[in-house]
Every structure is written in structure tokens, then in C-alpha cells.
Design brief:
about 220 residues; Tetracycline Repressor, domain 2; elongated; 10 helices; mainly alpha
Length: about 220
């Protein structure tokens, strides 16, 4: 059971279905928070149910196992990220413009919109095989989006990486994955300015000079 695109607002659903969807999304959010804090092996449905003030039997009504619940969390995060990234590519623009928007959008998702879900993908070393396969499949699909944009930029001459483009791409992924761990909303820079600086730094790895902009 996963909250799909278009379901977030409950459009087209009955009152009972909307209520059920709200409950499912609430369960996914809390479950993701618990797993992000404790890791998969140390997470229990008892704690998830307790935080939700929900009977464990009621939790089983929605998800029949911890693995099914966490799989739904992962699917929800993956589907939303893919949708956002693909929408940015569909908007068009130069490779530099598209890549910059991809970098910024991923930071918005991981630090502001769904931080509890995004952290799940950084705990992949302890996942059981079925969940590890899910994560690997998602990473492959999203990486294709980034790879296509970077290859387009190299083909047009916008990007001139000094090293193997694949290495640069993986370095960008690694840098973005850890932004949620050091980002702080009350830090030195406003979130928008900080995200732009991260994008500037990533694009430098592809030989793109930082654009001139007014100081915040």
C-alpha cells in the first residue's frame, strides 16, 4: 500500500477513502521517522503503533509486517522523487539549467519536504535483501535521469568534466545524499541561497563556472 501521485489531496476519493489515505500517510511518516532514527533491525511495529497512539492490531490492518510497512515508505519516497525529477527535465532548458534545478529540487525534498523519507535511503547496508533490491532499482532509475542530462551537457559542450563523467556523477550523488545531515534551517545562509551554493559547487565538477548573482 503506497500513497501514489494524485492521491495526496484525495481527489476523486470518497470520504472513507480519504480518511483511510490520511491514516496511511500518517503511518508512513511516523514509520519512516522511527526507521531513520533506529535503523531497520532496531525498529519495531510496537514503537510505530505507540507513536501513532494506535493499537498494534490496527496497524496490522494496514500493513501485515514491518517489511511491508518499510517497503511502502521506500516506494512512496522513490515515486515522489522520480516524479519531481522527471517533471524538471520535461520543463526543458539548457543542460546546466536542468541540472541546477535537479540539484536544488533534491535538496528541497531531502531537507524540507520529506526528510524522514529521504534518510531511509542512507541506511541501505542493513536492509534485508528484498528491500535492498527495491532501493537498488530506484537508484538505477533515478540515476538514468541525471546521467541523461549530464551526457547531453557534454555533447553540447556545456559540461567539460576534468575526470570520468561517471565518477563526477557519483560524487554529486554522494554530496547531495549527505546534505540532510549537515543542513540546518537556522544556519548562516537562507535555504534557497545554500541550495544554490551546493548547485554551484556540483556544477564546478563539470566545468561550469558559478553564475554571477546578487548577494542575498
Amino acid at each position: 500500500m503506497v500513497a501514489r501521485e494524485g492521491e495526496a489531496t484525495g481527489a476523486g476519493l470518497s470520504r472513507i477513502e480519504r480518511k483511510r489515505l490520511r491514516r496511511v500517510n500518517e503511518i508512513l511518516k511516523v514509520a519512516a521517522e522511527v526507521v531513520a532514527e533506529r535503523g531497520y533491525q532496531n525498529t519495531s511495529l510496537d514503537e510505530v503503533a505507540e507513536r501513532l497512539d494506535l493499537a498494534k492490531a490496527s496497524l496490522y490492518y494496514y500493513f501485515d509486517s514491518k517489511q511491508a510497512l518499510v517497503a511502502a515508505c521506500l516506494d512512496t519516497a522513490a515515486a515522489e522523487v522520480e516524479r519531481r525529477l522527471e517533471a524538471i527535465v520535461d520543463e526543458g532548458g539548457t543542460p546546466s539549467e536542468i541540472l541546477r534545478r535537479l540539484i536544488i529540487e533534491q535538496q528541497v525534498f531531502t531537507t524540507q519536504d520529506r526528510p524522514e523519507l529521504s534518510r531511509l535511503f542512507l541506511r541501505h547496508l542493513e536492509w534485508p535483501p528484498p528491500l535492498l533490491e527495491k532501493i537498488h532499482g530506484w537508484l538505477v532509475r533515478t540515476d538514468r535521469i541525471w546521467k541523461a542530462v549530464i551526457e547531453d551537457g557534454i555533447a553540447t559542450g556545456e559540461f567539460r568534466p576534468a575526470t570520468d563523467p561517471a565518477v563526477v556523477r557519483h560524487c554529486i550523488h554522494g554530496a547531495l545524499d549527505f546534505v540532510p545531515f549537515w543542513y540546518h534551517p537556522d544556519g548562516r545562509y537562507r535555504p534557497e541561497a545554500l541550495f544554490e551554493q551546493v548547485a554551484d559547487t556540483a556544477l564546478l565538477m563539470l566545468g561550469v563556472k558559478k553564475p554571477r548573482r546578487r548577494k542575498p
